[in-house]
Backbone:
């Protein structure tokens, strides 16, 4: 609650924090701007490893709060990321259509949950790590989707209706390649060793899945050593 | 999944089913049109009683599937409906501003979850029981909010992007008073005895809270006996 203190306190953001390199970079951006409340949504079995990364990142950036919400989407909306019976593809052609790792309405759900946190905590921004590579395949990673959601945020909330306080959807990585993200993260001193990207979620990154390959290419092109792989 | 069968099967809807009289009437509308998948979201302690009503209604209307999702919104976004330390008002002035029973971003979250179910099950409609009395106080019960969410639904989903299949947000009660809803429900043979409206969620409706008073007035004005109260 912000009653009585809104004028004096620093700007506050909600960050959707999966624990991957993209959301870690968003967290670093938001932390530089002001206070952060992190929201991690556990939506399937495969990503259990990521929550450890998210917790470590939240501690490192001294967030004001960190909500970890268990929300099993698998029964609602089967996908390769929530259902072990659907294979995670080793890698995909980025000119192809929507990939099997797409989780129906995932970003809509995540943004809706972040909106609840933002409204009740008096945050004025929601940071989400969608980026240029993702939105070639995922419908809910495109700028027009984010703009449409921002309109929903304005119409749905007490903040928007009574207080004329807009909650912005901020996607700082939207038009960045993975290489750009690594460079941006280096500038912001993102502790890459604390992040986790691999879809498979074992003890070490598999280095074969889509997420591992994208990550490796980003680091290689940026000329940066990925400590998560270097320590293997 | 609808592969191969979309042309021949009846239209399919997702119904947000709380177990109250409004969502029960929506369920009856949707069931008359075609197949139904019901979605009940348990978002706080107070509404535990409603899930029993929702299950009974789902059985009565022979839904194709019924998802019951436990999603504790209380820690994310405190409200009188999710936090026992905030009093539920006995009744409120309907000319007033947003009431304390407003749950931040609730309908956005519910519609986002319903969107996931709709997309993965091949449904073309989401029925939601928001109505004319609610939207005087709740920002996320207004037609402009529903229209904005429908735009999100089109942009966020594979259905909207690749298949040019729009998922409609249907709010059949939007402009109805509680009296109108009772009359509509009577016409559709809604089993009122299976529904539950009371915010307090005891064994019997408290008949003092906002929801009980609205319900009682609707039945009284429609000249219908509410079996839930008559049997008390």
Residues:
């Amino acid at each position: 609650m912000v009653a009585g203190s809104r004028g004096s306190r620093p700007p506050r953001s909600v960050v959707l924090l999966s624990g991957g390199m993209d959301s870690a970079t968003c967290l670093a951006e938001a932390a530089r701007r002001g206070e952060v409340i992190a929201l991690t949504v556990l939506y399937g079995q495969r990503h259990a490893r990521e929550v450890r990364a998210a917790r470590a990142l939240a501690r490192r950036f001294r967030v004001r709060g960190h909500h970890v919400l268990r929300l099993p989407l698998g029964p609602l909306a089967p996908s390769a990321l929530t259902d072990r019976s659907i294979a995670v593809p080793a890698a995909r052609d980025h000119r192809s259509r929507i990939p099997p790792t797409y989780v129906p309405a995932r970003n809509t759900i995540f943004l809706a949950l972040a909106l609840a946190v933002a409204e009740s905590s008096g945050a004025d921004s929601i940071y989400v790590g969608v980026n240029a590579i993702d939105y070639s395949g995922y419908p809910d990673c495109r700028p027009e989707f984010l703009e449409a959601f921002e309109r929903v945020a304005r119409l749905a909330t007490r903040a928007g209706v009574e207080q004329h306080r807009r909650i912005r959807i901020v996607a700082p990585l939207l038009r960045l390649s993975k290489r750009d993200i690594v460079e941006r993260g280096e500038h912001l001193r993102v502790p890459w060793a604390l992040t986790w990207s691999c879809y498979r979620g074992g003890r070490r990154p598999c280095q074969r899945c889509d997420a591992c390959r994208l990550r490796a290419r980003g680091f290689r092109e940026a000329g940066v050593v990925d400590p998560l792989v270097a320590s293997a």
Q: What stands out?
A: The helical segments of chain B are 21-33, 48-60, 106-121, 143-156, 158-161, 178-187, 210-222, 227-230. Chain B has one domain: 12-90+97-230. Chain B is about 40% helix and 10% strand. The first strand of chain B starts at residue 12 and ends at 16.
